[in-house]
Each structure stands twice: as structure tokens, then as C-alpha cells.
Design goal:
alpha+beta; Jelly Rolls; 60s Ribosomal Protein L30, Chain: A; eight-stranded antiparallel beta sheet; 16% helix; disordered N terminus
Length: 346
């Protein structure tokens, strides 16, 4: 295990994490290949996706090493091993509401299984929790796994321990965090029939997080008449059907129908001018989120101008990042409400 030298004196965590356990079928396309025998970094992105799952990088999707490429991703690139609803062979095994830290699992197989591989499949787990810091400080943890494991704090990757390998410790990583509440996500995957183990120790007390709900189903786009009515009544309307590629300002195709309805609102009233506002939740760096929300607002304007042929002088943009929440960021539902695009009459 890695030493926690140089960190502030903190009581060793005696808290716990909430664990969502899944089993990958032995026929799953991402398991049962060769072993890399070393840590493979860069298989997942630096930030979690909108469903709080790792996003597989281009490198991970085309990886030519012994363990093979990772193919089980959704349209947003999120890793579906931890979904439990995937047709490629991921099923939910159980939910453990209080997995006590520190972890030292040296034979980490699905329940009732004594050895790796075989018909019972391979165990993968997503643990989630939260912790609170009284002051701005650095924190640390140690992580060793056979095979893949990743740790995210506030949805940002802090320990990258991917690859099919014997038990291996990732380099120690510390993060300089602000005082207040923080999220912790730990992902583990066994993908090869030559052992399964995970060791995890944190230098800060944690508590289990609330359950992560399944991804919301896409709802039909709001009709132009409804959007126009809301703008006329309150001067603004929040729209949740506009989606972007993770951590980028690229508008996804499933957003076009919504944007076309917004264009219809503008066409129906030639005098209407709108400010396009981008908003985020409070996960991550506030300045970064303000810039990202500005770029996304600009992307919405570009679509309306270049595709829908709305005059550019009828639209302005502003990115507020996390500065104007309309719900509490303490819950998953609240953060989802805060991630929005608003159209405001000017």
C-alpha cells in the first residue's frame, strides 16, 4: 500500500461507501482477453459523464494491448459495465449500503464463486460517497487493484489504475480541495481469470452517498407554443432537452428537435429577442464551468443562426456556470435541474 506521507493529520477513515455491484457475463466482449500485466493509464476521460459513469477515451476504445479495446459504451461514450441494464451482459448483483473502509478484498469474486472466470462471470463495482473538509487542504488515498480501478473526486479523475494486471498500486495522488462537501466515486472491474483484488484506504472520513438514479428517459421536445407561452408569461424558459458532448460545447443530434422548436418561437414573433444562458451544477472548478457554459450558449446561438437562419442580432449569450442555481446541489435531482439552457426575453 502507498504511504500517506506529507498530508495533514486526519483520522483514518472509518466510514463507508455505498456499493453498486454488477457482474459481467463471461461472454461479455470486454472480458476474458489477455493480460496487460501493467497499469494502463488513459482508458477513461478525466471527468465523469452526465450519468456519473466513466467515459471511455478514443485510446480506450481502440486499445491494441493484450486486454483489448473497450467496446461497451453508450452514445455519450460512458462505460456501461456499471449500468445493470446493458444487453451485452452486465447484470446488477446487489447493492451494499455501507461497505466499510479500508477495503482489502483479495478474492473479490461474485457471490458464491470461489475462483475467477467461468460461468458466474466477473465482478465490477461502483462505490460512491461523500466527505466534508473543514478547511482548504490536500487529501490522499491509496489504491491497488487487479484489474481496472479509477477514483474520482468531484467527478474528476484523481487515481488512474486501469489495465488487466496483477494487484498493482497506482501512484499516490493528492488533490488540493476547497473547504466544504465533496463527492467520491470509485470504480472497479475484474476482467480476466487470473485473480481479483482491490485495496483502498482513504485519509479522510467518508459517508455513503444517496443512490444514483438511472439515466432519465428522453422526453419529447417541448412545442413552440408552450415555449412561447412560458416566455410571454415569465420572460424566460428553462430547457432541458439540449444536450452536449461531455465536457465540450458540441451539441448532440438528439437536441436538434428542441432547437428547431425554439427557432419556431422566434419565427412566430419577429420582434422577439432572446438571451441564451448556459448554467451548470457546482461539480468541478467554478471558473471552468462558467467558460464551458459560455461556449455552450454560443454553440446554441450558432445553431440557431447557421442552421435555423435566425438573425444573429436577435440573440445574445451569457454563461453563468454554477452561479445561478434553481435547486439544491446537495442532491442528484437538484444538480440535474441546475444543468440547463435558459432563453430570456430581452
Amino acid at each position: 500500500m502507498l504511504a500517506l506521507a506529507g498530508l495533514p493529520t486526519l483520522a483514518l477513515a472509518d466510514g463507508s461507501l455505498r456499493g453498486e455491484y454488477f457482474v459481467l457475463s463471461s461472454k461479455h466482449p470486454d472480458v476474458g482477453h489477455g493480460a496487460d500485466d501493467l497499469i494502463v493509464r488513459g482508458l477513461v476521460e478525466k471527468r465523469l459523464g452526465p450519468d456519473r459513469l466513466p467515459i471511455v477515451t478514443k485510446f480506450g476504445r481502440s486499445y491494441s494491448g493484450s486486454s483489448g479495446k473497450i467496446s461497451d459504451v453508450n452514445a455519450m461514450g460512458e462505460l456501461m459495465w456499471y449500468s445493470g441494464a446493458d444487453m451485452r451482459g452486465s447484470r446488477r448483483e446487489k447493492i451494499v449500503t455501507s461497505d466499510r473502509l479500508p477495503f482489502k478484498f483479495d478474492a473479490f469474486y461474485p457471490d458464491g464463486k470461489q475462483a475467477d472466470g467461468g460461468a458466474n462471470g466477473f465482478r465490477v463495482v461502483h462505490w460512491s460517497g461523500m466527505f466534508t473538509l473543514a478547511k482548504t487542504q490536500s487529501v490522499g488515498l491509496s489504491l491497488g487493484s487487479d484489474d481496472d480501478s479509477w477514483v474520482f473526486i468531484d467527478r474528476t479523475l484523481v487515481v488512474d489504475n486501469g489495465g488487466v494486471k496483477p494487484l498493482a498500486d497506482a501512484p499516490f495522488t493528492s488533490a488540493h480541495l476547497q473547504a466544504g462537501r465533496h463527492e467520491l466515486d470509485v470504480f472497479y472491474a475484474d476482467r480476466h481469470g487470473a485473480g481479483a483484488a482491490l485495496h483502498l484506504t482513504t485519509a479522510f472520513p467518508v459517508a455513503p452517498s444517496s443512490p444514483t438514479p438511472p439515466a432519465a428517459k428522453r422526453t419529447p421536445p417541448p412545442k413552440a407554443a408552450n415555449l412561447a407561452s412560458q416566455i410571454k408569461k415569465t420572460g424566460r424558459v428553462a430547457v432541458y432537452g439540449i444536450h452536449f458532448a461531455f465536457d465540450r460545447a458540441d451539441i448532440t443530434k438528439d437536441s436538434y428537435a428542441v432547437l428547431n422548436e425554439v427557432a419556431n418561437v422566434l419565427r412566430s414573433d419577429a420582434s422577439l429577442r432572446l438571451r441564451i444562458e448556459g448554467h451548470t451544477d457546482n461539480a468541478g472548478d467554478a471558473a471552468y464551468n462558467r467558460d464551458l457554459s459560455q461556449r455552450r450558449a454560443d454553440a446554441v446561438k450558432a445553431y440557431l443562426v447557421n442552421v435555423s437562419r435566425i438573425a444573429a442580432n436577435r440573440l445574445t449569450t451569457q454563461g453563468f456556470g454554477p452561479d445561478r442555481p434553481i435547486a439544491s446541489n446537495a442532491s442528484t435531482d437538484g444538480r440535474a435541474k441546475n444543468r440547463r439552457v435558459e432563453f430570456v426575453r430581452i
